[in-house]
Amino acid sequence: MNKDGEINSIDAFHLLGFQAGIILPTPPSPKADVNQDGIENSADATLILQYHAGLLERLPPVLNVMGDVDCNGRANSIDSLRILQLDARLVRSLPCEQNGDVNGDGRINSVDAVLLIQFGVHPLLPLPPP
After folding, report:
1. Tell me, what's the pLDDT at 113?
2. Is 51 helix (H, G, I), strand (E, B) or coil?
3. What distances in angstroms separate CA 25 from CA 9, 10, 13, 102, one per listed residue?
């Protein structure tokens, strides 16, 4: 939410501050709606805080960050590794497997992993549209 690439307690406090009208002149992104009820509010902030405190193993997989196959809210080289493990059949599934088809060809494979690595090296280049 604060565009640092991580979901943490700072995001929850920004969300609560926005709701209270004391911070953020612009509304939070739709990604802040963690529980997908259509409203970015204290319920979402509570889920984020519980996740950050280790009370939740992961946030609900509603963030749908392209390439984020481990459901941590960001796509990075760890996700590339997990995609390669899936492609090599070293693992059977991924927590947010639906986010793994980066190039939109209907398959999750090494091509998707390479695209994620390229994105990590050049984060200003957009990932292909879904």
Report:
1. 94
2. helix
3. 19, 16, 14, 33
